[in-house]
Structures are given as structure tokens and as C-alpha cells.
Amino acid sequence: MAVQKVHSRGDEHRYLNATEDEVPKRKIVENSPTLASFKDYQEKLDSRYDKYERLMKCSRDMTIANKRIIFLLQRISGPVNRDQIFKEADAKFLEVKEMLKKIASELVDDDPYLFNRAFSPGIQEYIEALSFYFYLKYKSLISFEEVMETCTFSNTKGNNLVLNPFEYILGIADLTGELMRLCINSAANGDRNVSFEVCNFLRKLHNTFASLGNVSKDLSSKLKVMKASLSKVEAACYTVKVRGSEIPRFALAEMLNSTVVDHVDY
């Protein structure tokens, strides 16, 4: 900040014990280029912080909406109308897509990686919900390109949301927890084929992730959770295969839960 000098350096000793009124006032030069630059920096930083907060709020809303979709899809393991659940999930995904559009509009003419941490949790939750939906419907893993298609809103490149491939990997890693719940619920409901299908799918997924190595702290922690989920699924499938005929159906769910806890290495 530019100021007008009103006293010499040697005069400073005279004002050490002076009151505020006795000290000469420094006059601010309003048309200083330095002052104008700092005001410009202030406006840019305030704008960036405001955008960061808006993206965080949108990410939280996305997380809540996608969790509701996952809870809805978990009902498929019971005796329900699958088509009706998929129809309800499609309607909820349309709401999530509007949130994705909002994030994309906020990032127009900005580097998305600059604000990545603001909306990353919501994107990961979205990929988890979408991949779970895709698995239930097609019995396969959704690709990164297929996820990107859901984030394409127009032919104009700047209006579409650019996803970080690493967010896709982290979102798929979270999928294993939902598949574990699907396996146990299906086994408890007597649908053993689904349980063994999920077990084989999880094994392939775990082996693929393990081959990536220690890429990042986030991925390493998710890999530990994935291994725990796989252990629970294998324990449940073992119980169904070996002792399934001995256990009444009404007691199978409780038996599976107790067996899962016993086989998990904490």
C-alpha cells in the first residue's frame, strides 16, 4: 500500500511512548497502482472462495441424493419388482444430473482440478451409485467412458463436466461395500446364485486393484476396506455352501451376520 512519508526515520524514536493522537497519520494514496492490484487480488480470491463453497454444497447434496439411490437399489435383493425400482432410480438419477450440470456451469472457463477437492466426494458417491445400478442391471462393471457420457450435457465442450479418472477408480472402490451387502442380503433371502456371482466379481475387482500398488493414500485405505468386504462375502458364501442345508431360512440371516463377523480380520 503506497503512503506519503510525513516524518524521517530518526523521528520514530520520539513517538515510541507517544499516544495515538500524537503520532502523525500516514496518508493513503487512493490512486496507487499497488493498492489497485491488491484490490483486484481480493476480488479474485473472494470469488474463488465463494465458488469453492458453492461446489462443496452441491457435492453434499449429490452425496445425499446418491445414497438414497443406493438404499433404493439395495431393495432389489428382496422379493420386489426390479423394473419398478430401476424406474424410480432413473428418476432420481435425473435429479443428480441437474446437480452435475450445476457443477459443470460453475467450472466454465476454470481449471476443474483447481476445485477438485470441493466436489470430489459427491462425484465419487455418484460413480458408486451409478456403477451399482449398472451392475444390478447388466452384471458387469461400468467403464470410465460410459460414466463420462452421463456427464455430457451438450455438444459444446466447455459446458460438460470433465471427470478425473482417479475419481472413477475411487468411486469403483466404494462399490465393493454395496456388493457385499447385496451378497449377504441375497443369501439370506435364499438367492444363492447372486451371492456366488458377487463373490467372483469381487475377487476379480480386488485382484485388479491390488495390482495397482500403493498409488495414493486414499486408494490404499479403500483397498483395505475392499479386502474386508471380500472376506465377508467369502465367509457368507462358505456358510451358505457348507451349512446352508442345515440352517432354516428364517435363521440364515442371523447366522450369516455372525459368521461374517467371526471371519473378518480386524
UniProtKB/TrEMBL annotation:
| Molecular function terms from GO | metal ion binding; sequence-specific DNA binding
Q: List the residue ranges forming a coiled coil, or say none.
A: none
Cellular localisation: Cytoplasm; Nucleus
Any one Gene Ontology cellular component term annotated for this protein: cytoplasm
Residues that span the membrane, as ranges: none
Checking Gene3D superfamilies in the record gives: Translin, domain 1, Translin, domain 2
**Binding positions for Mg(2+) per the UniProt entry:** E128, E178
User: One Pfam family from the UniProt entry?
Assistant: Translin
InterPro entries xref list: Translin_C, Translin_fam, Translin_N, Translin_sf
Q: What is its main location?
A: cytoplasm
| UniProt KW keywords | Cytoplasm, Magnesium, Metal-binding, Nucleus
Q: Does the keyword Zinc-finger apply?
A: no
PANTHER family reported for this sequence: TRANSLIN AND TRANSLIN ASSOCIATED PROTEIN X
Q: Which family does it belong to?
A: Belongs to the translin family.
What name does this protein carry? Answer: Translin-associated protein X
Q: Which organism is it from?
A: Acropora cervicornis
